[in-house]
Each structure stands twice: as structure tokens, then as C-alpha cells.
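Please, is this right?
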Amino acid sequence: MPLSFAHFLAEAVKNPALAVTFLLCLAVLLVNGWTDAPNAIAGAVVTGALPFRRAVLLAAVCNFLGVLCVTSVYASVAETVYSIALFGGGPRAALTALCAAMSAIVLWAGLAWRFGIPTSESHALVSGLSGAAVALEGSLSCIRWGCWAKVLAGLVLSAAAGFWAGSRTEHALFHVKWKSSTFLAAQIPGAAGAAFLHGAQDGQKFLGVFLLGTALAQGRGDEQTFPIPLWLMVLCALFMALGTLMGGRRIIDKVGREMVTLGPREGLAADLGSVLCLLAATALGLPVSTTHTRTAALLGVGRGAGTAVDWRVAGQVALAWVLTFPGCMAIGYWMSRLYLALLLP
């Protein structure tokens, strides 16, 4: 049976570590909507298809619908995140390590936003969880490498397929003789689709963490499939939407103005290319990064259209992607060691 809200509150009252984990998950969802979701609307804002505030509102609504609609019928991505690592040592120790992982993600995402780098909270999540679990268990044997294989497959898919799809859609639209105003109007549903699939992907990942925390509080952690309660989907969607409403101009400027030059046709091509990739990944249950998919699609469009691409900026973004895995794993590991030393006798 799905976990009821009343049952969850009862568990949180009995176990303060679960309550802290719950609040940290909400904080990460807020940060995700703030720093990750703006990628979906970068093209529409830069080309003038939508003013910034309207675009942010559109992204917030579509993020909400993506979490709510897709997760209710297909929770494979959430299940992958739920199973990424084993947390042993008893409920209190396991939840303490999980709190450390969430703290690491908030820290990493905050630093990335400060420098305007669109990093992936998805990869920060799996890395932070793995690092915290290793600190708790004392060895790498706690990591479920089959789930990590899905994550790495998603990384390759999101970057390679996003670049290819962006280039191909740009090539296809090059032969479409629409007015600029028509391309701009078509970007609005394109941006909406990208935001919807961002919610479907990233919302599921943090739903998995919520349910993992509840299971650990009850001394469980080995379930592979589970029903996701409606109240939890609504809560996750609302916090992600709230984060998006907080803005994200730094990310939009970095990927949509500094990295590549976009016109109305190029903006629509990037939207369509990334939507196709995210739709395929969600259907396959692969926890891909929406940031990587969107950014790669923008680069593919720029390359296909022959417009100016600042490969120096692209290199900075790619370096941040690479550093996310060891960086968040290390932060999760050491924060877990710190929390366990301070909070457990």
C-alpha cells in the first residue's frame, strides 16, 4: 500500500533524523527547480519567444505536471535512485548518512549556481548517496553497480543523443520556410514539453529518496518496487515549481547567450531535439540528466546551424559535469563521516 501522509508524520515525529532528511529533500527539490529547470526555457527566453517571467511560470506549471502525470503511471526512474546503494548500520545511522548526502547536494548545487554553471543535480544525487553509503558501510561493496550502470548509460545517452538530435532537428528545420514569428510561437509548446519531461525525470529521482528515507527509518532498505503516494508527488512537484519561480537567469545566460547564439529556428530545434531524447530516456527508465540533454542539444544546434559556439564556455560546463561525480561523492563521504561522528555515540 502507498505510504499515507498520517503514517509518514507519525514516523517523522518518532525519528527526528527522518524529519531532517525530509526537509533536506525539499531543499534539494527547491534548488533543482531553481538551477536545473531553467535549462528547459533558455531557448525560449533568449530568442524572445517568451519574456522571462512568463517562461518561468510556464516551466513551473509543466514541471509540476511532469512529476504528477508520469510518476503516477511509470516510476522506473525513482526505483533506480532508490536502489543506488545499500544503507546499513541501523535506522539512525542510515538516516544520518542520508542527511549527509542531501547536504552535499545542496552545497554542490549552490556553488554551481554561484558561478552560473548548469550542473546536474541528478548526478550529484547518485554520487552523494553513494559517497555517504560508503562512509557508513566502510567499503565500496554497498554500491549497487547495476544501478550505476544505468546512470552512466544515461550520461552517455543524454550527451551523445542530445547533440545528435539537436543537430538533426536543426538540419530538418533549415528546410522549413516559416516566418520568424511562427518559429517563435512554436517554441512555446517546445519549451513546455522540455519542462514537463524535466519534472518527469528529476521529480522521480527525489521521490525515490523520500521513500528510501522512510524505509530506512523502519529498518528496511531492500525493496525494489513500490507504490508512490499521491500526496508525495504533489509535494515534490510543488517545491520544484517553487524553485523554478525563484528564477534562474544566470543559467539561462550561460547556456543560451554565452555558450551558443540562438535564433528562433535554432531555439525550436534545441527544444524538439531535447524533448525527443528525454522522452525516450524516461520511457526506458534511464535516470538521465536534463541539464546534459538540453546543453548538448544546444551545442548540436549551434554546430548544425554553423552559428557561433563558444567552446571555452562549453568546456567549463563539461568540466563541471565531470567533476560532479567525484566531487559530490567526496563531499557526501566526508559529510557522512562528520555527521556520524557528531551525532552517533
